[in-house]
């Protein structure tokens, strides 16, 4: 065999060897893939953060807890009462702390009322004055029973007790909120209270507090001007002092939450306040009392456009 022919044969042999090696390499890769366990697919990192239960909740919840006795750590002892007066000018000498606000398991507020003005005064000088403090006894809000306005409404309702409360929710607020019991009530039917607050845009928002038809602990539903439920007050049936669990829709005006807390605290005086207005009405008709108003209440009726 000549030289050119040998070269052709050698080239074919090398090509065949290369192809055989390539096939063998592919077979080896297939066998290795079959015997090697597959690597786990990469897991996608969880980018979704945990959302707290409170963040998911559509309601701001609180508890109004009324104490049984006056002997409590807030005001027990002359020295402590004097120190409390120094913390806030709203903490008067006759101030009695009678309950607390609980939110998220912690005390966030304290309720007080002027004991002498309610228990020792008589006639038109007897009035309810509530104050809401922080847990450090800094003033937050005041709620007054307006004797003059309440008696006017009671006379107009021909003896049906109507209570009107003025609520000052903050030093920075420009408006007083007036909460009033409705005179449109049939005997043995649930009572209603109403009020409105003026928003930052200057527009009023109206609300009604409707007592449940069947209730044992003092249950009220807060209804807005569109007829939708905006909050609740659920009274506990078996409680010695008084306890209400309340809730207001999250994102609502902060004053709405303050009003609901104050209203819950006044419920233990609700029956006494009705009897007081009924008695004033009868005594006025009989000429037994002479109309008079306390200076603090008279100030609330003053003309804001008067010359000062």
Automatic annotation (TrEMBL):
Protein name, entry field: Uncharacterized protein
Comp. bias (Low complexity): 31-44
Chain spans, region Disordered: 20-52
Species classification: Bacteria, Pseudomonadati, Pseudomonadota, Alphaproteobacteria, Hyphomicrobiales
Ranges annotated as biased composition (Basic and acidic residues): 20-30
